[in-house]
Structure formats: C-alpha cells, structure tokens
Amino acid sequence: MSLMRAMLTVGGLTMVSRVLGFARDIAVAAALGAGPIADAFFVAFKFPNFFRRLFGEGAFNSAFVPLFAGMTATQGRLIALGFAEQALAALVTALMVLALAAMPWLMLVLAPGFADEPARFDVAVELTRITFPYLLFICITALMSGMLNSLDRFAAAAAAPILLNLAMLTAVAISPWLGLPTLAHGLVWGVFVAGLLQMVWLQQSLARAGMRLRLPRPHLSDDVKTLLRLMVPGALGAGITQVNLLVDVMLASLLPTGAVSYLYYADRVNQLPLGIVGAAIGTALLPVLSRQIRAGDLAAAINSQNRSTAYALILTVPAAVGLIILAEPIIDLLFRRGAFGVVEAEATAAALAAFAVGLPGYVLVKVFATAFFARQDTATPVRVAVAALVINVVLNLSLMGVIGHVGLALSTAIAGLFNAATLGWLLHRRGLFQADAPLRRTLLGLIGATLAMAAVLLGLSHLIGVPREWPALLRLAALAGEIGAGAAVFGLVAVRLGAIDLGEMRRVFQRRRKQ
C-alpha cells in the first residue's frame, strides 16, 4: 500500500470518528456544561487517555512498530508474532503496577487544585477508578494496532476509535434511566465498555490476518529488553504534546472552576485536524520508513519524509489560520446550548485560538520524530522533548497569571512549534532530511494560498459574520459559507502556485479505484 493510500485510509476513518466525537462532546457540553462535575469527568477521562497516548500509542508503538516491521520483513511472521506476544506480556505486567489503590495519589499529581475541594476531588477519584481498566484494554489495542499497521492493514485500527464515541453517545442517552448519581458516572462506564469492545474488535481483525495473539508468561528476552530500552526515553519523546496538555490540566486545576473544561472543549476542536492529519501521517509513515531504512533505501526514506512534510503543512497551516479567525463562531455553534452558555463559549474560543497557533508544529513533530523512531533513535527526540517541556512549564507559569487558561493553551502551542523546528533542524544537520524541489514549491505556494484564504475569511467575518442571535441553522449556513469560500480560494491559489499537484492526486485515486 502506498504512503498516500495509507494516509487516506487512516484519515478517512479518523474523520468519521472525529465527527462522532463532536456529537459526543456536544451532548456532554449540553448536559454537564463547564462546572465542577464536568471538571471531575474530564480529569478522569484524561487519566487513561494520557497514559494511552504516552505509553500505548506513543512510546510503545514508536519502539514496537520498527522492531515488529523489521522482523516481519527479515525473519518472517512467525518470529514477529512471538515477539509481539512477549511484548504483550511485558505491557500487561507494567500496566498492573498502576494499582487502583494509588489512584488518590495519582489524582494529586494530575489535578492538585482539586485537593482544596474534597467533593470534586472524591468524585474525580471515583470516576477515574471506573475508567482505569480502559487503560489496560486500550494499550493492548494499541499493540494490536501496531501489528496490523505493520502488515499494511490500516482500516481496522483506524476504525476502532469509532466504538468509543458510539459507546459514550449511548451512555449519554441511557444514563437518565439507569439511576446513576450523575451523567458523568454513565459516561465513565461507557468508556469502560468501549475499551473492551475495541480490544475484541482488533483481536478478531488480527485473527483474520493470520495472527492469533496469545498472552504468555512474562519473559525478559533480548528482544523485549531492546523494546524497553527504546521505549523508556520514547515515553517523553513521542508523547510530549500529551505531557504538555497534562501540565495544562494540572495548572488549570489551580485556576477558577471551569478552566479544565474550557481547555478540554478547545482541545477537542483543535484535535479534529490534528487527529486526522497527525494520525494518518504518523500511522502510515512509521512502518513504511522502518522497512525502507531496514532495506538500506535511504533515498526512498527521505522522499517519504518530504512527501509527509508537504502533506502535513498543506493540511494544517490553513486549518490553523481558519481556527484562529473563526474560533468564536465555531465554538458558539458547536457547544452553546443547555448548561454551556455565552461566557463558557467565549472562554473556550479564546483557548481554541491559542491552541491552533501550534497546530502545524503538533503534526510536524509526528513526521520528524517518526524519522528518528524508524532508525531506533529515541534518545534524540527525548532530549528535544525535555527542552520543549521546560519551555512549556516556564511559559505556563509566566502567562497563566496574566491571561489565565488561555496562557496555558498558548504555552503548549509555542512548545509544540519549538519541538518540531528543533527535530527538523537536527534531521537536516545529520543529512537525514533534505527539502527537495517539490517540497520547496509547496512551501512557497502555501504562503500565498494561506494569505489569500485569511483575507477572504477576515473580509467575510467583517461584512457578514455569524451573529450569536441568529437561529442555529442560519448560523450553520453562514459559517459553512465562510469556511467553504476560504477553502475554495485556498485550493485555487494553491493549485495555481504549485503547492498542490492535481496530477499526483488523480493518480492516487485512480490506483485506489483499480484496487
């Protein structure tokens, strides 16, 4: 499967998941708003998701996929399967160390500001205990996803998050009839069920691929030692964005009630382009680069990095500018209803605009860090990640007293841009990344197309805007018109300036139809 086809497969299914995720968040916002129960739920939900992204999708997969893909290519599927089973045993054993008895202590780390409000703290601990098993289920799912991606089977893993959103939407619908203390309790039970469903779904997908995964007794083999050696520094190198977001939550818990929720809702909107583009590129690029590097085809590896960089920029730069300009009408349309009022919408929109500044950086980190991971170099990304984390914390402490939760979001954005720029510079200095002519043409055309789009969006916002007092359908039509006009201008100028190659896109879709 070509790199572009793999990205389209992952990106398309991720789009479906994100749309359902928005439906889920709209329902949650209407029911919970941005009060103390909402803050407690989002911290409880953040706990397993943080460790999932850090250890499951982040450090674990960045170390596991190159090893598994390399074994599959050079030693065969049977040897690779044995290694995967050893890795599974090590992963399950490590996760069991996070015992439920430690939850209150972990909560003090995740949300220290909750300690001054015993009711909110106790609810957060109770909800987190229910979501804890999701961590085990979803990290096993991450391992199985890595196996499937290494076998060029991207669809099943990309579709798995859809089950989470369906389960949580179902929980919102049925919670009033279950007699639970709050809607948040129904939501966390939905998370628990979703993790189990995702694990079973991918287990069946692996079986259809001819790989029946078993759980053996833990054994510290040489391959597992290599995995752990690569994984430990990669925990920070691969998950720096998540670490920065976690720092935001920790510090937001010290701000007035609602700050945690504002950051959550804003990040969810920002995650739409980040999740679709970042997941598609990172998921598709790692196994491809690993095989190319293992085969000694460095020219092909550099070409893959150039194309991934171009795809990342052409999709995220206009998205970032659009989110900054249209943050307020987007948040107002998506979330302002029920318990989520005008004040909450304005506070969330300000956080979204700040997060969006770093959107290209978040995705480029996935491209550049993957180039190191594919070469089994996790030390370099971790050094850069530590520097980015220090920058984030310093900026957080400097800005949160001035602009509150918006300062936390802006600090994360700046740290993400620094992380991406530094990784790209190091790759270039080591001769592992050189911008070719098509990428340079993309960059120049991108600047002109983005400026044209920004002018259109600003002009339409000034002339028409999306007044808050309009009915929802009219606001939706106006916002869709502005976005459509901006996208059309961007596309036309980008093609004219050579930033987008229509011939390449036609060839990709023709190959997809033939296959």
TL;DR of this structure?
The chain is mainly α and 515 residues long. Helices cover 83% and strands 0% of the residues. Mean pLDDT is 80; it is low at 511-515.
Q: What would your notes on this structure say?
A:
This protein has 515 residues and is mainly α. The chain folds into two domains: 3-435, no CATH class; 436-515, no CATH class. The chain contains 18 helices and no strands. It has helices at 3-32, 36-74, 77-96, 103-110, 118-150, 155-174, 183-208, 222-237, 240-252, 259-294, 298-335, 342-357, 359-373, 379-403, 405-429, 437-463, 472-496, 502-514.
**Helix-strand makeup class:** mainly alpha
Q: Given the C-alpha coordinates, what overall shape results?
A: globular
How many domains comprise the coordinates? 2
Order of helices and strands: HHHHHHHHHHHHHHHHHH
Oligomer: single chain
Major β-sheet annotation: none
Total beta strand runs? 0
Rounded mean pLDDT is 80
Q: Report the C-alpha radius of gyration, rounded.
A: 22 Å
- The residue fraction in helices comes out at over 70%
Q: In terms of per-residue confidence, which ranges show pLDDT below 50 for 5 or more consecutive residues? A: 511-515
Q: In DSSP terms, counting alpha (H) and pi (I) runs of 4 or more, how many helices?
A: 18
N→C terminal distance: 10 Å
Our estimate of the beta-strand percent is under 5%
